[in-house]
């Protein structure tokens, strides 16, 4: 059973999707933390996939990977970036996972002949998940994905209603995030969609305790009173969530609007204890005083869906913070770089650093290789992440080592799989084995693995450590057999798996900054603790901008 003092805050969303509920939850977590409380955040996703690992980034945005190897919702990235608490497998559940768990229990005969129903079996499984893996936390913030009224989320809403009833007012709080649309022609904020959304929630047995209202203009007091009257709340429980210039302003802005105060009031906690928001004030100050701009080009396939690169964008921004410089991102569609007529100099004009991020499949891969070639030949700082590292290996192999048909087995049959399917490796669960017929879901090399850095290399000086741990998500791996050919021609594998069989990092020592990593450093960067690779890359790009 859970500890007897933990408080649960359930966060639901109404009116429209994309309200930034995940960010709101993360920000609330960070302000409660600033008041000295220990927090944990969880996300309940109503879709039927077991996890987002097999979903297209166009559908779902980034798939955020945890240290313990779970493929999770991108909101867990917000949670970790804002609170610094490492996300875990047990922090994200989907309808698919709940049902597959209930069905396998049924097959085992665990239900002793009962008819399996949404209530109580599915709702019990949801409650079990919500209450699992809670230790000495003061608060568990639990976000319910989707919008109130969706068919898929009904069992989740029912489960939190039951928990509210079982644990009572002193242990649970319902926070509903809504939108107040501003009608320009009338010059007015409209409260009706919020009233309807709250009514919908009340119809399911939940009375929200606090409303967090997204708005593009300040909410007049009389509008707050009106919402309070119709939604059965006190006006001070209607909190304004005004659009912010930067997501890192949001914790302070929520605090100024009284969000943490209302939560503490609800739970009868000490109101005199003020949060220490210096971490966020400091970040805001750096943002306001940053000078100059570096231009970073990202060559990718999902450039029309930037949520696919959520953590990457944030990490680049964190790198800017540590160098006190603004960063502007130019999105470059990798397929466009395959056009033979294109003047590539025009594409990269004014670009101070090039990133080729993670990716999957053949489409656009030749364009990525062209972009990497441009960075290598023109001495532009280059950072290849996962697929980006693999493509940097192919670029170097084809153009320098003259391995003209070097390819990846990800692209189909090849007689030179320089990047090959990883079939056997050591994880903390033991020896993992795969073959080309293995299931696609959850079978990549996932989660945190150690990596050994070679002495005297650029990465070793950046990390200032000999052994690092970073998160992985890939199926293919660079073939180390040709190591001496690469080394002889100036590309070294400066980071290796502890077994010394899997290349994890490459660099070109004669280039100003050319690094490829098989893992995803962007998953661990925080605004108050920028990842060293991103800080160093932005510094190199800054030096490049001074040369132009
Ligand atoms: N598609 C590549 C692989 O599976 C790279 C994956 C990635 O960039 N995350 O190995």
Written description of the protein model:
The chain has 548 residues and is an alpha/beta fold. It folds into 2 domains: 277 residues, Rossmann fold, CATH 3.40.50; 256 residues, Class I glutamine amidotransferase (GATase) domain (Rossmann fold). It has a 9-stranded mixed sheet, sandwiched between helices. The protein has a 7-stranded parallel sheet with strand order 5-2-6-1-7-10-11, with helices on both faces. A 3-stranded mixed sheet has the order 16-17-22, covered by helices on one side. The mean pLDDT is 94. Bound molecules: glutamine (GLN). Glutamine binds next to strand 21.
Radius of gyration based on Cα positions: 25 Å
Label the CATH architecture of the largest domain.
3-Layer(aba) Sandwich
What portion of residues belong to β-strands?
A: 15-25%
- What is the CATH superfamily label of the largest domain? P-loop containing nucleotide triphosphate hydrolases
User: Which fold name fills CATH's third level, the topology of the largest domain?
Assistant: Rossmann fold
- Count up the helices: 18
Number of strands: 25
Cα shape = globular
Strand count, sense and barrel status of the largest sheet are: 9 strands, mixed
Low confidence ranges? none
| Strand order, largest beta sheet | 13-12-14-15-25-24-23-20-21
* Average residue pLDDT: 94
Q: How would you classify the helix and strand content by structural class?
A: alpha/beta
Instruction: Spell out which ligands are present.
Output: glutamine
The top-level CATH class of the largest domain is Alpha Beta
Terminus-to-terminus distance: 62 Å
Q: How many structural domains are formed by the residues?
A: 2
Q: How much helical structure, as a percent, in the residues? A: 25-40%
């Amino acid at each position: 059973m859970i500890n007897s003092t933990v408080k649960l805050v359930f966060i639901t969303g109404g009116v429209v999707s994309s309200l930034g509920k995940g960010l709101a939850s993360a920000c609330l977590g960070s302000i409660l933390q600033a008041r000295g409380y220990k927090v944990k955040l969880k996300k309940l996703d109503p879709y039927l996939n077991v996890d987002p690992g097999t979903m297209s980034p166009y559908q779902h945005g980034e798939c955020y990977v945890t240290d313990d190897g779970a493929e999770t919702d991108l909101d867990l990235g917000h949670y970790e970036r804002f609170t610094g608490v490492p996300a875990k497998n047990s922090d994200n559940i989907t309808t698919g996972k709940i049902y597959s768990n209930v069905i396998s229990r049924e097959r085992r005969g665990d239900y002793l002949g009962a008819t399996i129903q949404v209530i109580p079996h599915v709702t019990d499984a949801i409650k079990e998940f919500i209450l699992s893996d809670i230790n000495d936390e003061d608060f568990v913030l639990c976000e319910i994905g989707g919008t109130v009224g969706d068919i898929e989320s009904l069992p989740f809403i029912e489960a939190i209603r039951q928990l509210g009833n079982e644990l009572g007012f002193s242990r649970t709080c319902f926070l509903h995030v809504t939108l107040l649309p501003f009608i320009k022609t009338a010059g007015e904020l409209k409260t009706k969609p919020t009233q309807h959304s709250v009514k919908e929630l009340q119809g399911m047995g939940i009375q929200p305790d606090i409303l967090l209202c997204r708005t593009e203009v300040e909410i007049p007091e009389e509008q707050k009173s009106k919402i309070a009257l119709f939604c059965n709340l006190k006006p001070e429980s209607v909190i304004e969530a005004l659009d912010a210039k930067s997501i890192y302003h949001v914790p302070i802005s929520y605090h100024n609007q009284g969000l943490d105060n209302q939560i503490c009031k609800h739970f009868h906690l000490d109101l005199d204890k003020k949060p220490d928001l210096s971490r966020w004030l400091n970040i805001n100050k750096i943002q306001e005083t940053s000078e100059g701009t570096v231009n970073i080009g990202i060559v990718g396939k999902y450039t029309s869906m930037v949520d696919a690169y959520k953590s990457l964008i944030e990490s680049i921004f964190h790198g800017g913070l540590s160098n006190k410089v603004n960063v502007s991102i130019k999105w470059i569609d990798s397929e466009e770089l395959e056009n033979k007529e294109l003047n590539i100099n025009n594409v990269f004009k004014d670009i101070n650093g090039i990133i080729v991020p993670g990716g999957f499949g053949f489409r656009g891969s030749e364009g990525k290789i062209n972009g990497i070639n441009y960075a290598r030949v023109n001495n532009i700082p280059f950072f290849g992440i996962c697929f980006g590292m693999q493509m940097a290996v192919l670029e170097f192999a084809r153009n320098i080592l003259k391995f003209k048909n070097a390819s990846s087995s990800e692209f189909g049959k090849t007689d030179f799989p320089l990047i090959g399917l990883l079939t056997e490796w050591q994880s903390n669960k033991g020896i993992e084995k795969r073959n080309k017929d293995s299931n696609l879901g959850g079978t990549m090399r996932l989660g945190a693995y150690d990596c050994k850095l070679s002495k005297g290399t650029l990465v070793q000086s950046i990390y200032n450590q000999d052994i690092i741990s970073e998160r992985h998500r890939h199926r293919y791996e660079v073939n180390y057999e040709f190591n001496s050919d690469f080394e002889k021609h100036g590309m070294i594998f400066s980071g290796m798996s502890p077994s010394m069989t899997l290349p994890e990092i490459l660099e070109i020592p004669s280039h100003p900054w050319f690094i490829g990593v098989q893992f995803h450093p962007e998953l661990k960067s925080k605004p108050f603790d920028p990842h060293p690779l991103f800080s160093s890359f932005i510094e190199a790009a800054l030096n490049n901008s001074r040369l132009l």
